[in-house]
Batch of 2 targets.
Target 1
Amino acid sequence: MTQKEKLKCPMCSDKFIPRTFYPEEAIFSTSDGKKLSGFNGYISSSGVKPTEVILSSWITYCPKCNYVLKFVKEIVKKEKIQAQSALVKDIKEKYNNYYFGFPFEDYSQYLQKATREVKATIESSLNKLNLSAFENMHEIKDTFKLLVRFYANLENYCNSQFSTEEDKNLGEKIKLLELSADLEEILIELNEIKDKTIHSDYELSNSDKANVNRAVTGFMLDRIKKHVKPLIDSKKLKNKYSYVDIRDLNSEIKLYLNGYFSSIFNNGRATDEQVKIFLDQLLVN
């Protein structure tokens, strides 16, 4: 692989990124009429053997006119090797093979490179976000304990974001996070329910329990969206990776994020559906 640029078709002049390169071996005829390919075919071939022959090629196609482009993949050379002695009789002939990689980067290589760079940017942003205190919270099966732990972590998170606002109550701090209206409402409501449960004999209803699980997941997804969304804006990605189909890149990003969420969320179908909807919305530009 020597060049990182578009190929120009010699037939129609269209410039394109090869989807891939296919190997094609040369076929040689032997003295007994057989057809053999590659090095064995060359050695067994009948007639005069040229001192240098292309044994195989990399081929690709122009997507506009289907013209076949070929590039050298392997050649064989008949070369003279002379021993340290200067005697003519010490000179021998030997067949040497030389191999060549892709002459241009193909589409899959461009896509892999773009995916690696975008993933690294997302990982760096998620590390700075520092949501480790909230990860795997769904492993706490007792909903009341989950509720108390979540709000303790939430207050610490708010204090780390707004160090000058530590004297405010948690409800006011939640409003400073600039969450979606629905999420802000449910977090404030659950905070009041948490206080009521701690200081009275109030018991969490089934609806409350469902809201707790939705709030934990929803809060993390909201924070992730705020940091990740600007990094995967389609217009920006198209400008930076002009050779890549944005749909392919989005599929790779979605696959990566789905794996990331699977590692931190494990709370059944409801959470899985919440994550799925989130991913679909996140990648819509």
Target 2
Amino acid sequence: MCVRKLSYLLFFLFFLTMITGQENRYPIKCSNSGNEPQISYPFRVKDRRGEGGYPGFDLTCNTLGETVLRLPQSGEFLVRNIDYVNKEIRLYDQDGCLARRFQQQNLNINLSPFEGFGFRTFNFANCPPSATSHPPDELAGMFLDVRCFNEDTKTIVFPVSPTSTSDSKISQVLTRLGCVIKAPITIPVPLDAVTDVYKYGFDDLYLTWVDPKKPPDSDRKGLIMLIIAVITVIIALIGFYIKMGKRCETHQF
């Protein structure tokens, strides 16, 4: 009977040691279902114990198991993918209309550790459906039709180039067609859209980062905590083993 109890105790303490060793380990995911990205250095899950990340690269997991990044002054975005090789994080709007969010809110990434691969300026224009269903030849291929606004008018986007002479002409044609042109907005674009802006479809927000250097004592701190935890478990194991052994000897006599 005593041998069985000691075996149970040994198994429990071994299991506790394994949990302690796993506590500080990354990478992790917010959910194993779906396509949630892997969270690894420099990212970390906010308010979760253990090493593995760097200040400013805090992610959270919402109640649906989705990965969330909050940009200062710009709110929360869902994370579609994190490419650790190319240092690219792709964010999307939870309501499925990133273009509307760009129009309604001034995106600011200056207070975050992220930056854009490049930046382009766009004009948003609210147009009657007839203006975009059969556009004149001078507008062919010159604008992007954004379909997620759910308004009576159609919202289109066209790039603004400081070296182009066609921008004012596009604005004149759109105004003649009954479009209302909004103020220009400068936003970060993916790498391939830096040279060809029409490759960007306003589906995701593409940002990049530079890996920060790990604090010199971060790995050592995690190792020391693990060693202390293991030693504590071993001492507890020895104490319980001795105590149970004495009880067994007493019962034998």
